[in-house]
Amino acid sequence: MSHHRLSAAVVGALLMAGTAAYAQTAGTTVVSAGWFRVMPQSDSVPLRTTNIGGAPVNIVSSGTGAKVEDADTLGLAVSYFFTDNISGELVAGVPPRHKVSGEGKLAPFGVIGSVRQWSPAILAKYHFGTAQQRFRPYVGLGINYTWFTDGKITSTPFSNATFGPGATTTMKADSSWNPVFNIGATYAMTDRWILGLSVSYLPLKTKATLNTRTATGVPVTSETSIKIRPVVTFLTVGYAF
């Protein structure tokens, strides 16, 4: 091969490398795992007792409140590129356990309970730029279904002060559908391995219900509405097929 042909081949190879698709082309599936940081922006209405011994009541404990604390967990996602710019993603995580702390008159009790949150979501994303770019920002919109399990009151002083010594209380929260607003970016380290970082916001709220049985066996039902509104960051490493 002559010197000129060799030079032309080298230049052609460099041009092809410069326009190689980095795991972001139509028909590509990307499986990712990483770190979820769930940061609720929570507030609540005062605790209200709705039933004592089977009789409806309406007793509001003014000045009381609760907030949901931050939590970390492992996240998993599967994405599929329908086109070079449009993808769909199913994302879920190992359900994190959130501590619930008292606010207002309940603040001196500190952490009063905990609950486990399940929040899988489906997202549609638009990726800016072309499949040949290593760095690609995107915006996404989706829907989430959230439910809660294993709610419990862990503060004996709170239970004693609110429902009397010897009372036992369980906690549950309503499930809900919520929109998901998402922005993020990916960086293709190779044609297969991808780094990703996203930020999502969910306008999530729920009603928490406390079911108590006093030391004398009287059932008491109380409730409060909590706006959780989490901001969720997701740092991932993905592999494209």
TrEMBL record:
It comes from the Bacteria. This is OmpW family protein.
